[in-house]
Amino acid sequence: MMDGQKWQDQGVAHYQAGAYAEAIDAFINARAMYEKAGDQGSAAEVLNNQGVIYRMLGQLEEAEAAFTEARTLFARLGDTGRQAQATANLGMLAVARGKTEPAIVFFREAIAAFQTQGDRIRESDTWRTLSAAYLRKRRWLDALAAYSAALDCLPRLSLGQRFLRWLFRVPLYLIARR
After folding, report:
1. What is the pLDDT of residues 11-45, one digit of tens each?
2. Residue 11 in 3-state DSSP?
3. What is residue 153's predicted lDDT score, i.e. its pLDDT?
4. What's the domain range around 94?
5. In the chain, % of residues over pLDDT 70
6. CATH of the domain at 40
7. Burial of residue 68, with CB atoms counted within 10 A of its CB: 0-12 exposed, 13-18 middle, 19 or more buried
8. Helix (H) or strand (E) holding 139
9. How far apart are the first and last CA of the chain?
10. Strand, helix or coil at 39?
11. Under 8 Å CB-to-CB from 60, ≥6 apart: which residues?
12. Quick one: residue 58, left, alpha or beta (phi over 0 = left, psi -120 to 50 = alpha)?
């Protein structure tokens, strides 16, 4: 009999191979094993992974249920970092559904949580995703500001990224001077 970690590893392998239905089945088994062992954090993690696959498959109701439950479990465990990741996933799901305003709320909540955790990389990723959501709403300056914040999170910027950061700050500076 396999334990939760082996089921999870199998699910990841299936996911990487593009065998999504098999990955979901493995994650369901992993979750059951983790819950049986009392490992709620790992159970919530594989549930969050299931949500990602459901979203990729276009099974949006299943994805929402998985992300919401994972987020609740992480909150109950006091795991702010993984709760923020599930929240960002809910934002991605809202974008997939064409619901940009709720997505923006989810992304902002995730960013605040990543900031409290000092997770600058995930914070940067979420700022970039928020920037794209603002672009969908034609909120150009908000998109520029969000992308600039994403660049500010990164420890090292390429020459192109440094140029973009400078370029984005010009209109923001001009507006602030008014």
Report:
1. 999 999 999 999 999 999 999 999 999 999 999 99
2. helix
3. 82
4. 4-176
5. 92
6. 1.25.40.10
7. middle
8. none
9. 68
10. coil
11. 54, 93, 96, 97
12. left
The pLDDT value given to residue 19: 94
pLDDT (0 to 100) of residue 167: 74
Please give the structure tokens belonging to residue 104. Answer: 């923006």
Annotate 43-60 with b (16+ C-beta within 10 A) or e (fewer): bbbbbbbbbbbbbeeebe
pTM equals 0.85
Top pLDDT among 17 and 141 is at 17
% helix, strand, coil for the chain, step of 5: 85, 0, 15
For residue 20, the Cα-to-chain-centroid distance in whole angstroms is 19
* Count of the separate structural domains present in the chain: 1
> Greater confidence, 141 or 122?
122
| Pair of tokens at residue 1 | 């009999």
Single out the residue of 135, 70, 58, 150 nearest to residue 103, CA to CA: 135
